[in-house]
Specification:
heterodimer, A: mainly alpha, B: mainly alpha, 4 helices, 73% helix, 0% strand
């Protein structure tokens, strides 16, 4: 249980965040202030905000849970699944977006292709962000409930109302500066947890020894079970080597190397870092093109330490509490059993910081998409900056209400997959196709709007189709064998969806006569 | 077995032939390639307008640090 000291630390952190958001909120006078922070953000703040936004409560609980279940391979999502894409994004895509003077990625795509492409991408991002808001709030409720017996409804309402308040008042600038505070609290709090956890285990060498012993013990058990024909899928998972990043093609985890390399590093990661509105939007609010690029490079440097705070605690939990059935319970149990008074409060503050820094960004970006890609584009093209500010704030409030409702709905649905897998599967549906059209849009002048739209829709249909065909009930009804041999093959969905989009886009574009190239710079 | 199963099986068997040492080389090699590309970028793409006044204003060094750590990680783990 939390003590008074823990509560003092948590309340101090929350009060600091609210104060910062409130102060910045006074400066917001227009839609441009709310959505792009008046283009006055410095590189260091944007870089820290990028990392804080990317690491949410989902990553701390779900990432730690995946490390507990599958091992260090989950760290691929923070290393090769982030750093290379951020560096390439910094020097190739971010300058292109910044020079175009756009507010949203869908707006960029309309300038390059057509309104149809813009609308489909805006719709996909809006649905994803809105669902993700509920998933993130659920993650907080799970942690608080498991550790302290807090009422999940209370956790959801508290987080949503606090974040909703400062995001609505201060917009992107409040989001970025509270993210800076949250980044410091999150990394500091999790590093403290890591240090204490390692001390409890007996140091890094003892951690490695214990995990290897657990793996060996389970491999032996599986061999015995196989002889007695009593093999279960769960024991299959447990025999995977947990201390390596690169896993073979037939690994029983969702992270075989072809999925990690082709699906994550080459498709999902660049799709996320150059195509995700919640990520890219803050760089568009940077002071200059150089500061926008610098923020991505700074974020990539910071990203190198993230697996230490996300994946390694999951391994520590495995070494200390090896018999948990639910991986998502690993971090809450570790915190409850290992951390002393006071430090527990720091961890809870770090977790809330991680959660809030992601929820605020998705809230602000979802409101930006509604305001620019729906309201300004289709409802009222002559909207003034003051009206846009009002629309943005009303949308933010509506999204908070929706997120609370969706989180409550999720708590009532039994899920076999972990939180992390649900999140990644949702992204895999459209990120591959979205990246394919962005990539060709920037590098291939001949790509046409109608080809991009057709390719995009075919790509999304491919990933949704593969997901559907992979569901046990559907397979049984159609009498089909599984299409993929690994569990939760979301990385493979994105590869196939990307390839289908590319093939359709390139083929249809080549069938049309070549036209003069289109300018997508500001004012065109 | 549908046509999708046959395609998937063929690709799976092909990828299974690649030894994990070769896969590690692929991962590390890709990171090295990006590092070399960053180091070869012209100054106007990695420095602020008007040129860098201090060494740390050239983004090549920070990007090199981030990628260097990655190369080390994927060589060892």
């Amino acid at each position: 249980m939390l003590t008074t000291l823990d509560y003092v630390l948590i309340v101090a952190y929350l009060a600091g965040t609210l104060w910062l958001g409130f102060r910045i909120g006074k400066r917001v006078q227009s839609g441009s202030d709310l959505f792009l922070a008046g283009r006055r953000l410095p590189w260091w703040a944007v870089g820290m905000s990028l990392v804080a936004t990317d690491i949410g409560g989902v990553d701390i609980i779900g990432g730690g849970g995946a490390a507990y279940k599958f091992g260090l391979a989950i760290a691929n999502f923070e290393w090769i699944g982030c750093v290379p894409a951020m560096i390439v994004g910094a020097f190739v895509f971010i300058p292109a977006f910044y020079r175009a003077g756009v507010t949203t990625i869908p707006e960029f795509l309309e300038r390059r292709y057509n309104a149809g492409v813009r609308s489909v991408i805006a719709f996909c991002w809006l649905v994803f962000m809105a669902c993700n808001l509920g998933i993130m709030l659920l993650a907080s409720a799970k942690l608080m409930s498991a550790m302290f017996g807090w009422n999940p409804a209370f956790s959801i309402l508290l987080t949503a109302s606090l974040v909703g308040f400062y995001t609505c008042a201060g917009g992107l600038e409040a989001v970025v500066y509270t993210d800076v505070l949250q980044c410091v609290v999150m990394i500091g709090g999790c590093l403290l947890t890591l240090a204490i956890g390692l001390y409890e285990v007996g140091g890094p060498k003892e951690l490695v020894r214990r995990i290897e012993a657990i793996d060996a013990q389970r491999a032996e058990k599986q061999a015995t079970d196989a002889v007695s024909e009593d093999v279960t899928s769960d024991t299959d998972l447990q025999t995977n080597p947990r201390l390596t990043l690169i896993l073979p093609v037939d690994t029983p985890t969702p992270f075989p190397w072809p999925g990690v390399y082709f699906g994550l590093a080459l498709i999902l990661s660049p799709a996320y870092w150059v195509g995700n509105q919640a990520i890219v939007q803050r760089t568009l609010g940077a002071k200059s093109e150089f500061e926008a690029k610098a923020s991505y490079v700074w974020g990539a440097v910071l990203k190198n330490v993230i697996p230490l705070i996300v994946a390694v605690p999951g391994l520590i939990a495995l070494a200390l509490i090896p018999d948990l059935k639910d991986g998502d319970a690993a971090i809450p149990r570790l915190v409850a059993e290992v951390l002393p008074v006071g430090v527990r409060g720091v961890f809870v503050a770090a977790f809330i910081a991680a959660l809030m820094s992601s929820v605020d960004s998705y809230l602000n970006s979802a409101a930006t998409i509604v305001s620019f890609d729906i309201y300004k584009r289709f409802v009222n093209p002559q909207v003034t900056e003051t009206q846009l500010l009002k629309v943005g704030r009303i949308t933010t409030v509506c999204l908070v209400v929706w997120a609370i409702g969706f989180a409550f709905l999720l708590t009532r649905i039994e899920q076999n997959s972990g939180i992390y897998t649900i999140f990644q599967t949702l992204m895999a549906f459209f990120q591959g196709p979205a990246f394919a059209i962005l990539l060709t849009g920037v590098f291939w002048k001949r790509a046409t709007g109608s080809a991009a739209l057709t390719g995009l829709l075919c790509g999304i249909a491919t990933s949704v189709g593969l997901f559907t065909l992979n569901q046990p009930a559907v397979r049984e009804a159609l009498k089909l064998e599984p299409l993929f041999r690994i569990s939760d093959p979301f990385l493979y969905f994105s590869i196939w969806a990307f390839l289908v989009t590319m093939v359709v886009l390139v083929t249809l574009s080549l069938l049309r006569p070549q036209r003069p190239s289109i300018s997508i710079t500001s004012g065109s | 077995m549908t046509i999708l199963h046959r395609i998937g099986e063929a690709i799976r068997e092909l990828l299974q032939q690649v030894p994990l040492t070769g896969v590690r080389l692929l991962f590390v090699g890709s990171l090295v390639a990006i590092l070399l590309w960053v180091l070869s970028l012209p100054a106007e793409r990695t420095e602020p307008e008007g040129g860098a006044r201090r060494w740390d204003e050239n983004l090549k060094w920070s990007a090199g640090l981030a990628l260097g750590i990655q190369i080390l990680v994927y060589s060892l783990l």
